[in-house]
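[recover] target loaded
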């Protein structure tokens, strides 16, 4: 490095540049497509109604993070976009009420709807869902002296998402049921009300992606972590084995019949490093993480199954790659 007129001159190594361009985050290993196909593995560990846990093995952090971000922000879902408030005499301001209603997740399958091209176009059956919320809080018995139990005193004193009613557009009634397109949960509290408070609201749901607004994200969370790797450097037994076991999450370290500690399952270790607080066992363990083994956890809001969300994320990435290659060929 030399200096010219106060500026450093940096001579770049052409071989180093080529290596950096192909380095995908795993030290000096260069990316190779055939090697990638051989190494890539996806292992489903747990697949429940709204939660999925799976392992993605043999990929770089960039690819793992791409899938995480796609599930969060580019897999579409349906959400309430416009709120027409004709009457709101509750204590909640119109803007706050509209925001609360927009965040209520809908059960509609976004794959059955189209994106709304122009937001000013009238609603149609292909791109819009219409709902209404018409409720009024009244006193049940005007002569009652009850002052403690709201259920006995008032009707509609608590407004929940289950009171939102679907208004079919066009032929939607013959295609969908209200349970297929309405709010996923009926017990989401919208507002507390008292006699004289009233809602007269129309709501319009459209298809969108989380990149535009978080309400369109189909997941409650999508995250990953590296697989822990725990190795015992020497035999640990007796009191030290019990102490070692307490330093890790339940199920990670177990003790056999001869009172020797062994690593049963490092997968669910929280990597707390508590073991290093005790000098007598600090040198007995080596803790690290496997750099190309990612543990994904995907929690769906309910409109799409978590495994479907991941498959949709793969489709989005495939479409982006194809578009990029077409642009390169076009130039």
């Amino acid at each position: 490095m030399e200096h010219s007129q106060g500026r450093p001159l940096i001579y770049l190594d052409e071989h180093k540049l080529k290596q950096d361009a192909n380095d995908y985050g795993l030290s000096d290993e260069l990316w190779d497509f055939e090697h990638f196909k051989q190494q890539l593995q996806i292992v489903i560990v747990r697949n429940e109604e709204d939660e999925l846990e799976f392992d993605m093995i043999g990929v770089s952090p960039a690819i793992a993070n791409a899938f995480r971000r796609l599930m969060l922000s580019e897999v579409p879902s349906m959400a309430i976009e416009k709120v027409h408030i004709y009457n709101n005499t509750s204590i909640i301001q119109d803007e706050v009420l509209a925001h609360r209603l927009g965040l209520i997740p809908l059960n509609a399958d976004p794959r059955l709807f189209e994106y709304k091209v122009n937001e000013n176009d009238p609603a149609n059956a292909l791109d819009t869902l219409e709902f209404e919320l018409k409720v009024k809080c009244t006193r049940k018995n005007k002569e009652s002296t009850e002052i403690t139990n709201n259920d006995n005193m008032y009707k509609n004193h608590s407004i929940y998402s289950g009171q939102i009613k679907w208004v079919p557009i066009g032929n939607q009634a013959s295609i969908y049921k209200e349970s297929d397109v309405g709010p996923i949960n009926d017990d989401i509290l919208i507002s507390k009300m008292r006699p004289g408070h009233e809602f007269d609201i129309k709501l319009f749901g459209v298809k969108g992606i989380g990149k535009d607004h978080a309400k369109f994200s189909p997941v409650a969370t999508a995250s990953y972590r590296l697989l822990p790797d725990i190795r015992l450097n020497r035999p640990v037994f007796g009191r030290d084995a019990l102490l070692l076991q307490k330093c890790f999450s339940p199920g990670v370290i177990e003790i056999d019949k001869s009172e020797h500690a062994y690593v049963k399952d490092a997968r669910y270790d929280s990597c707390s490093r508590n073991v290093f607080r005790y000098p007598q066992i600090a040198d007995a363990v080596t803790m690290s993480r496997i750099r190309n083994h990612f543990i994904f956890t995907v929690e769906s809001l309910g409109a799409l199954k978590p495994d479907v969300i991941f498959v949709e994320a793969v489709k989005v990435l495939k479409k982006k790659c194809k578009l990029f290659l077409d642009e390169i060929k076009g130039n």
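[recover] notes: The mean pLDDT is 88.
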